[in-house]
Amino acid sequence: MTSLTNNALRTWLHGLPGVDQVGIEARAAGLGSRSIKSDSKSWAIDMAIAMIDLTTLEGSDTIGKVRSLCAKAAYPDPTDPATPQVAAVCVYNDMVGVACDALQGTGIHVAAVSTAFPSGRASLAVKLADTRDAVRAGADEIDMVIDRGAFLSGDYRLVFDQITAVKEVCARPGDQPDAHLKVILETGELATYDNVRRASWLAMLAGADFIKTSTGKIQPAATMPVTLVMLEAVRDWRELTGDMIGVKPAGGIRTSKDAIKYLVMVSEIAGDDWLDPAWFRFGASSLLTDLLMQRQKLRKGAYSGADYVSID
């Protein structure tokens, strides 16, 4: 694939099967209507907590806020030590060192948004420097954004080359594990499900470890039909290559009910192998609060007051 011209890459991507919009939306709606029994609900809530990339991506972020978020990531419910930890904390580059220090020894990953997040409007040199800084600071995962302008203009080769270049910068010397690369498609700007499918395959061809729906800064962000298309893509990729790629819906998933709908869809579309924080994540902040309140209700039989759960 690295030797293909842009025309050849375009021909290949446009040769993918088209997405039936009515069919995909009906399938997503049907999966979202499944009822979950109490025992399964308890398991699903714990799994959803363990899949969260707890996120703060505001210009007003402070060292104190990031440290507080890391404390919540490690001990989501201090009254119940059995509560799972989250998968990762996601921050801007300049806060990677703070998060790494606060999470040392917990096993929780540090993810950094990179490549001129959220717009992606920067030169490749700037994008690579941005990523290199985060990796050197200790980031375990890099969430990069694709150049949507190039993609929508049909310049798939440029998008491919930028992803592969960022992937190379994620490498660490010696025996140190490389940073995992999560490629953000910003599906709210891609306009069609066909484009979501093409962008998913393009990212996987270029070396993505995860494909991610959104930055959370553009609406619509994550939706069930879009995530369904991406789950089909990783399922088909595994059938073709034998390799698993992760999926991360991000933005707009705020309730336990919504999170459980996504877990049902993961199981039905991609398969139970993806029901693991190594292969499926939620990019969220407020979602954790609702999951904890629902978990406390299942444990105690009643909702705790809002002041029993910290606010992000």
From TrEMBL:
The UniProt entry, under Pfam families, shows: DeoC (PF01791)
Among SUPFAM superfamilies, the record links this protein to: Aldolase (SSF51569)
InterPro entries given for it?
Answer: Aldolase_TIM, DeoC, DeoC/FbaB/LacD_aldolase
- Biological process per Gene Ontology, one example term: deoxyribonucleotide catabolic process
In Gene Ontology terms, what is one molecular function of this protein? deoxyribose-phosphate aldolase activity
Family to which this protein belongs: Belongs to the DeoC/FbaB aldolase family. DeoC type 2 subfamily.
What protein name applies here?
Deoxyribose-phosphate aldolase
